[in-house]
Design brief:
This protein is an alpha/beta fold. The protein has helices at residues 43-49, 80-86, 102-111, 118-131, 135-138, 151-163, 181-194, 207-213, 231-236, 241-247; strands at residues 5-13, 20-27, 32-36, 61-68, 71-72, 87-90, 169-173, 199-203, 216-221, 224-230. A 6-stranded mixed sheet has the order 6-7-8-3-9-10, with helices on both faces. A hairpin with a 2-residue loop joins strand 4 and strand 5. The chain is globular and about 55 Å long.
Length: 252
Amino acid sequence: MTIRIETDRVTAMYGKFTAVKGVSLKFPTNRVHALIGPSGCGKSTFLRTLNRMHEMSPGGWITGQVLLDGQDIYAPEVNAMQLRRRVGMVFQKPTPFPTMSIFDNVAAGVRVNGRRSRRDLSHIVERSLRQAVLWDEVKDGLNRSALALSGGQQQRLCIARTLAPEPEVLLLDEPTASLDPQGTQRIEELLFELRNNFTIVIVTHNLHQAARVSDTTTFFYLGTMVEHGPTKELFTTPGNDQTEAYITGRFG
């Protein structure tokens, strides 16, 4: 699979949140890309422009281009709903559908695209739960409420639901912020598996997490992209004084 997200001079606003200005980045395939920076610096705003999720909020807008395999995702002919099937997103807090079973939660995104046989759905649900490393924990209780799962399991369920339509890109907005250390570890281990098949962009406030899981890191500050590069280089020999100050804990 060849998948490349490239942004060109993106300026965006998401509701009341910090605008990002003139960001140009490339996200190669089968890598984990971390976005770091203090609260309110524009990380999540930028992340949402990558699948037009910011349009769901009043006041969301963007100028510039976001290219997915060379096609501008903001071109008039691009259907936003279909785009979000290719570029899935998982949010900070687990968001399982409370009235649905574990099975129906995972199948929900597939059913939106039309009727599928129970056999097909069962195959997709099992594949997605296995990809999210949750199958063995829930396979004997797929008809249980999703709310019966622990917080970490619920977040992996949300990842499975996002994977079910077979996206090419996975966006994660602080996916472990509300989890305990054990749940955080499971999600981080999962990322190493998922990057074999997906391009992943993750927003995180946890610098140690960014260092552990990502191949490249981008530092944002006050709506500006300050520095981008291989994670090891950015954390050990940053090229910008602001980046060094943030990484060493002098602010943020």
